[in-house]
Amino acid sequence: MSLHNVSLPLRLRARLIPETHGHGWVPFYNLGYLVFPFLPIVLSLFGDSRQWPGPVRDMLGPTLLAMAVFLPVYFAAYRATGFRSLLCMLAMAGIGYALLPFNSFSNAYTIYAVGFAAMLGGPLWVRLAWAAAVLAGLLFEIVALQYPVFIFLITLIVSVAVFFGNHHFVESTRKRAELKLSHDEVRRLATVAERERIGRDLHDLLGHTLSLVALKSELAGKLLRRDPDAAHREIVEVTRVAREALAQVRAAVTGIRAAGIAAELVSAKLLLETDGIGFDAAAAVRMLEHGLQDSGALPASVESALALTLREAVTNIQRHAHARTARVEFAIEAGEAVLRIVDDGRGGAISPGNGLSGMRERIEALGGRLRIDSRKGEGTRLEIRVPLANNAADLTIEEVQA
Question: Is the pTM of this model over 0.70?
Answer without folding.
Answer: no
